[in-house]
Specification:
By secondary structure, this protein is of the alpha/beta class. The chain has 14 helices and 5 strands. A 5-stranded parallel β-sheet has the order 2-3-4-1-5, sandwiched between helices.
Amino acid sequence: MITQAIKENVINAIGSQRKLYSSDAKQAVALGINSAQLNRIKKGEYDGVLSDGNWIRLARLLDVQLTNSPQWVTAKTDTYLFIYQQLKACQSASLSAILCDMPGIGKTYTAKQYVRENANAVHIDCSQYKSKQKLIRAIAKEYGVTHTGRYADVYGDLVYYLLSIPTPLIILDEVGDLDYAAFLELKALWNATDKSCAWYMMGADGLREKIRRNKDLKKVGYAEIFDRYGNKYQEIVPHGLEAREDFLLKQVSQVARANGVTDVQKLYARSGSSLRRVYIEVQKLNAA
């Protein structure tokens, strides 16, 4: 059962997010509900408007906690500061870049935080939208553009919208999971929005290897995509073993202390230096 308090927290999160959209209608599309439902719940009409499943889905989308555990505190680690500044620079000047680095250092968390705080920026988890159609429809939905119906219309409407708003930024996460047709469509969409839309591609070493291998094989599209995204891979984590360990330990320490955990060494050992695991371990401690 979804409590009144959780529903109120969801409504508050919707209100905070409103500035990211040009209209209530576009926010409703991005949230996956209709405008009438959005208007009713914003007025405090909760009963009979949305199912519990929809309230849970909205809570997930808006990062609203369903329990009484302490609110997660963002630690501005080196990874956070590096990526946030890169995203800001790309968006302000409609530039594109690729970040390839080890998993679990906070890439996705930072991207999601950036999107919550900056208008016209969206984050797409490509592992959930591997095909061309699913990817383009997902981007359209995030912008509040109609994402159902004929694919050609969705694509055309998305291009038109991206060209009509100030400094859009599309953050593509887990890009290595995309199929070949989706990669080619990204090139087409980049061309259609050249100098009007910023792009930021993120992945682990698998993405770097996928691009390198297909470039070497002269597979159509990969050299062009690499060129459009700056012809270099951005990195954060140092290469030397000792420097890397120091970097990862520092990040775990910052995140742990920001969220009330003092036994950093124990947490570091349990998490294997992954901030994704740090989050899980801290939640387990809070629930104990």
